[in-house]
Amino acid sequence: MTPYVISGATLPSGERADLYIADGCFRDPADVVGEVRRIDADGLIALPGLVDLHTHLREPGREDAETIESGTLAAARGGFTCVHAMANTEPVTDTAEEAEHVLEIAARDGHCQVVPIGAVSKQLEGVELAELGMMARSKARVRVFSDDGRCVADSLLMRRALSYVTAFDGVIAQHSQDPRLAGAGACCHESEISGRLGLPGWPAQAESVIVARDVQLAELTGSRLHVCHVSTAESVEVIRWAKARGVKVTAEATPHHLYLDTAEVIGYDTTYKVNPPLRTSEHIEAVRAALADGTIDAVATDHAPHTPQDKDHPFDVALPGMLGLEQALAVVIETMVKPGRLSWAEVAERMSHAPARIGQLTTQGRPLAVGEPANLVLVDPQATAVVDRAQSASRSRNNPYHGRTLPNPVVTTIWAGQITHQR
Q1: Within a domain: residue 394?
Q2: Is 302 designated active site?
Q3: What is the tens place of the pLDDT at every residue in 288-299?
């Protein structure tokens, strides 16, 4: 590897520094010898490589929508040096062998680190626990388990899952959706808009009642719970209450729930169909405030690529999900940094340090300091661009930010000392 010196970068603390990289790590300048490649970072902010707790890479099984190669290239363009791959692949990642298979593909094709997430239940059916212990002991060293896309609705199964993972300090990441209050047809936030459009409603309480149940089960078992894609003010209050009680609960917010509201669905554009659905301004404000004060620990993309064939249906039939990796940091800058709700140090915490801690990663989310792995992203805080879905590295085009002018922050991404993206 050619050594690098990144000169004049602004660290999250606001200090300026030169960063020396050799053999995949940050080095003392005295230890870097021979030819050195220089990267001028004057005016740029150096953040630790971003970590996504919630990515759908679709491989194996739906390579028509995304592959590990294309998805991690999109991640690198977004400043990510690590993504957690959700288990709802085909076949489902519910065994040690399937988790290791994902790891093997990533080792060959990945443009960033890929950490497999294991299913909570076999085949995501919510009936019988998957091989949690075997996945945890495998080469994949799975620590996060989720049936994302489906809620673990059975209270006893959820309790058993939470109890089981305490043996290796694992975490259960829940898709909070009461299947009776928001059944399979629910596709739009329950409001005046859903009534006017004739779309089945997804009330806010269908999320918060599951969050309320699960934080109490986490308290009962002494286990770690992670709440995926928080989208409602009620859920925020439940999580705040649970944290005050000392419950081991963490939570994430997606870029689209920080930025887009339910009015986007008025034209029946299925790009804006997502689960949980886009909410109203009061919920958006609650999620932003919770991310700012730390009640919500992390930003996670819920990057969910779909083919045109899966989206080209009536709104209530089309598959839910949006792309998120390439514009995640842009949306956080637009909604949280520009209004002064997050500092750059807090962006590093919410998008790198916290997700790495939740996922128990040892080489990600580390400080930009001598001896640490060289995972970082150089950010231009002033650049903007019109988002063009045709330019995405993803194989899919269901990008909800298409045509919008947003920050265009990511200049260079470096993973393990290697440049994986450079604008």
Answers
A1: no
A2: yes
A3: 999 999 999 999
